[in-house]
Amino acid sequence: MNSLFDISGLRIDLDAHGDRLSPVGPVDLTLAKDECLGIVGESGSGKSLTLKALLGLLPDGLSMGAGQIRIEKGGDLVACQPERLRGHRVGLISQEPGAALDPLMRVGGLIAEVVQRHAGCSRTEAAARAVDLMRQVGIPDPERRARFWPHELSGGLKQRIVIAMALACDSDILLCDEPTTALDVTIQAQIIRLLRDLRDKRSLSLIFVTHDLALIHEIADRVAVMYAGLIVETGPTEAVFADPRHPYTRALLAAIPDMDSPDADLQPIAGAPPAATEFGEGCRFAPRCRMSSAACVAGQPELEPTGAGTQVACVNWRRSEKDAP
Ligand SMILES: Nc1ncnc2c1ncn2[C@@H]1O[C@H](COP(=O)(O)OP(=O)(O)OP(=O)(O)O)[C@@H](O)[C@H]1O
Ligand SMILES: [Mg+2]
């Protein structure tokens, strides 16, 4: 696989009154050109912090304690500082588009400002390019809507403006953090279709974070399942969905409502993920795991190849659920 973006050994540290806690990591991720990598996991698993670290946007008190980020340049992967990627090669689409838009600027002006900063062109050229970008992201009547204030647009149109701003920087990688969670299902489907179209037309590569496994199945070529700050299973989406090996991935899949048998009982995962203060030496999923055995508390298992194109971090991955003690 030709990597476009590569993260190795990423660890995010939190300074807790002099003690070091690491809510995320070590995490390795790689993204190929034109690929969509899905990251899925329960709330608090570290999905957003991972994306923020990649852009140097970690909140106060948190820092990148270890790891290297490399990006493709002239055919090679070169180390880079996260801050330098932001607004250049890498754009961020977040859950709440309103937060990314300055309420005191008209939306056309917001996009034009990015164009001008990036391309160094005149204001008139930037304004024309902003309208063109609004058209590309499917905003109807873009000449008129360019004069709208952010609050005059619906959530779906706001998210399209944020996507246009990322395209204005000529970003070739989009980090999407639950970009459709705040939108209703029809608008959600439209935004997903737009991201897919852009990926095909503009050769964009995506990292797509969500807790919606059905969405991952629809959009992602590869998936990384995160639990308590670590990737516990990863591989081509079809392979992971067809034959999940980590008990956590199996449990997540079992918790999806089945539209073919609406009366079937949902199987929620008992218990809650641990906070960083509760991480122990052993597998972080062990306390909730039906398969857990003495070996699970000895140490955190590393990702290992299953032979089916996927990797899994579980000492019991060869056992099936039927063998659960
Ligand atoms: N500003 C912060 N200070 C301290 N800890 C934080 C901070 N932000 C996040 N964390 C902790 O880091 C962990 C990962 O948080 P993160 O926001 O990345 O989760 P997430 O997977 O994106 O969850 P969600 O699906 O709810 O968005 C959580 O346990 C959270 O409590
Ligand atoms: Mg999040």
TrEMBL record:
Q: Taking the first listed entry, what is the main subcellular location of this protein, grouped into a coarse class?
A: membrane
GO BP annotations listed: peptide transport; transmembrane transport
One cellular-component annotation, GO: plasma membrane
Hydrolase as a keyword? Answer: no
Show where the ABC transporter domain sits: 2-253
Question: In Gene Ontology terms, what is one molecular function of this protein?
Answer: ATP binding
Record's keyword annotation contains ATP-binding: yes
Keywords from the named record: ATP-binding, Cell membrane, Membrane, Nucleotide-binding, Transport
- Do you know which InterPro entries this protein is assigned to? AAA+_ATPase, ABC_Ni/Peptide_Import, ABC_transporter-like_ATP-bd, Oligopep_ABC_C, P-loop_NTPase
Q: What is its membrane topology?
A: Peripheral membrane protein
Q: Where is it located? A: Cell inner membrane
Q: Which family, according to the similarity comment?
A: Belongs to the ABC transporter superfamily.
Q: What is this protein called?
A: Peptide/nickel transport system ATP-binding protein/oligopeptide transport system ATP-binding protein
> Which species expresses this protein natively?
Cribrihabitans marinus
